[in-house]
Amino acid sequence: MDMSNWEQKNLLSEELVHGLKAAKQLQAELGTAPSLSSSSLCLTTEMRETLLHQIVSSYEKAIWMLNGSNIVHSPTAEMVNLAADPVANTGKVPESPTSINGSPRSEEFLDGGSKDYNLSSKKRKMLPKWTEQVRISPERGLEGPHDDVFSWRKYGQKDILGAKYPRSYYRCTFRNTQNCWATKQVQRSDDDPTIFDLTYKGTHTCSQGIRPPEKRETRPNTTLVNYQNDLLDNLSTNLTVRTNGNESEAFSFPFTPPFYAFESDFGNGAGTFGHVGSSGPSNFTGLISTNTSTGSSPIFDVDFQFDPTAEINTGLHTFLHDSV
DNA sequence: CCAATTTGACCGCG
DNA sequence: CGCGGTCAAATTGG
User: Where in this protein does the record put region Disordered (predicted)?
Assistant: First the structure.
């Protein structure tokens, strides 16, 4: 317990430091007087945005690590992205995959530009994409950095043009079950075989990765709250929303960017939620309250509030837990 | 028996 | 047409 706790703390601080770095970089960028260093003065707006995303992402992940996941995705993000202004549409942030495992010290990030961000070319596949380099420890069986917090399923391997080693392709294990479209590529470096290039594409929308781990041991008083949090988490993954009047308008909640986050402030499962992040439609908030009228299947009354400019009307909606 | 990997086929794009 | 990426049938492994 102590160990995992310590490890968690490490991860957490790593994440925060990561975010801080990005923040400082952005700060430096914004802070520079135009006169100074006129040469390399500007990052592209894309890079700035990516930095921003990185910061937000770090916060999200850190919070995630503290509370367990309570991040939810809206269903229509891709359409929103496609429809939106190409510059502002970069989707959502990658949760930066902190690679850890047994030996944190032998496996480390290379710093100094070892992470580069790339809001890929304006093709159809505009998913967040970023790369990292990981040095593998001697101890772990020659093969790979292939474990971060997520579970990946290999779906291909290719020999690459000028590369000594093949490139392997992974996707999230829960692609089908949870509509999680995150993928990653692993490419062993030509010159230094202990280094692997990891390319991540897309963000995890699965309720996987870091679970709310074993907070159970804490005060008995919090069990109810924890349970309710779990309930919300479950809701965030198996959720169908249907409008009160309109059966036809029902939609499933989770998956894909813009993020919506729940904040369960009361112990009873009620809470508020709203848009998180810098892209997508904002000003979409809601208030959740329990509807105790039914026994077994939890039903929440949700009061949506939309920005006036939004197309959709404010209304009273009902969250339905999706069977199971 | 189920789930993950392997591996050649397939396919879109430049 | 070749390259990089993905699919899916066959195979492996638990």
Answer: 89-117
